[in-house]
Amino acid sequence: MNKTVTVNIGGMVFHIEELAYDKLKNYLQTIRSHFSVSDGRDEIIEDIESRIAEILLQILGKSRQVVTSEDVDQVMSVMGKPEDFAGADDAAGSTSQTTGDAATAESTIKRRLYRDPDERVIAGVCSGMGHYFGIDAVWLRILFIIIFFMGFSGLLIYIVLAIILPKAITPTQKLEMRGDPVNISTIRKETESPAVKREPSGISNVFDLFLSGIKIILKGIVYIITAFFAFIALIVLFSIGMAIMAMLGVGGLTIPVFISDQFLSRDQQMWTTVAFILLFAIPAVWLIIRLVKWMFNIKYNTHRLNVAVGILFILGLAVAFFNVYDIARDFAKDAKIRNTVQVLNPSAQTLSLRIMDDPKYDEESHSNVFSTRRGNFSVTTGSDFVFNQDNVDFKVEKAPTDQFELIQVFTAEGRTEKEAMDNVKSIKYNFEQKDSTLMLSDHFPIPKGVKFRNQKVLLILKVPVGKSIYIDESMVDILDDIDNVTNTWDGDMGGHTWKMTDAGLMCTDFDFTTNKTDDVDPDNMDIKIDQHGVRIQGKDANDKDKNVNIKIDKSGMHVKTEDAK
To answer: Is the whole-model pTM more than 0.70?
Structure first.
């Protein structure tokens, strides 16, 4: 077991064994002493430390985190040992060069693409590319000129390259640009014997200003985008925190209705929360760390963190998949109960239909309304589970006798057939008849503790031939594609009396067959779109008020125009 310390080398953080730290510290002190009288001493030391950090990263790779004494020996063999340059300058240069050449075989330095500021004509793009590809920069300049005259894209390509390619400023960068080995000898040579610089032209200076402005703008945009994503990540973290607190019952918070006891079991709720944390919370924290690291240029090896986050994210996907599969099993089986209720024939020939008033269920007595493709539902203040009108359907059919009948069809789903049947039996639907008025409910509750399993209620009213029904406008929301001889859509059937004939329902107080589509002035209309379709109120070419109703259902599109009342 070896003691380790944390050091900063070239702006990067390393964990290093104590013996290796002492050896590296002495090595760097010897280098500083050697270059103490050289011009650009600080620049040389900075480049050497950056190169040492780069070599250490290559040595450690992705599997190790701690620098050992053997790693420091390898760094010294690449950069050159102190005794190689401790003597005279000439001897030092010869010896360190030999060492550096030998080390190059172990650590091959690949050329890196930079802009060359020393041999530039405008921005140094062509001269930098010439070093990288090993060709004369003149040919590249000629190529860009040809592309420019063939089309304006040549200038655009040059500008883009000038923006994205870094400028070779430090000795190390210039050595990398030319493909020279980077060690103490070459860094010293590059520093003390700089290349002859080409005098920048007026175009070059103007282009530098242009690039500086573009980079400032792009950097500002990147910071704005980064701040935006960081803000989103914080919101996600806050939301997840609130959800977890709600599940734990902290601070009086309530969990969202769709992951409450009315929907999921305790185990499913727990695994849903775990999947949520693995898929969103941990990646959000990781994103914030990465953004902060990038914004403040923090050089820290996050390989293990990246691997851990990746593993946890994959684990979260697995947890979410199996949890969804387990939830889907709760809807695997279905059951149905069909009840027939005799409805007293009204004293008059017409049976009125309307939605009953329910003081226990109004806009103030329920909350947490939640909508899905399977219907709308809510949880009342008394913790009863209530399904809204989308889960109650009403149809009208011809009765085989002269007696009104109301057929109730209750359906539900469950993990097993028995569970599905128990869910069906939990449905408590309420209706009431007062003489010639049949009052129906547009919702139904299920007891607390019974979970949502796609419970539905279908009401089928059997109407004898020759008898009539009046459909109140309050019934419109539960009407389910009621057939009639005029093919009138459900939204228009409310507020009218319909008589059952051998051919089907026929309206007796309004002639729908005479209403054709008229032209409507588009400059004077009011359009309303709701669950019943599209309704347009306006004036036609004769300045008459018109209502145009458009509905699309399984039988096609229906357009009907009538005079406004």
So the answer is: no
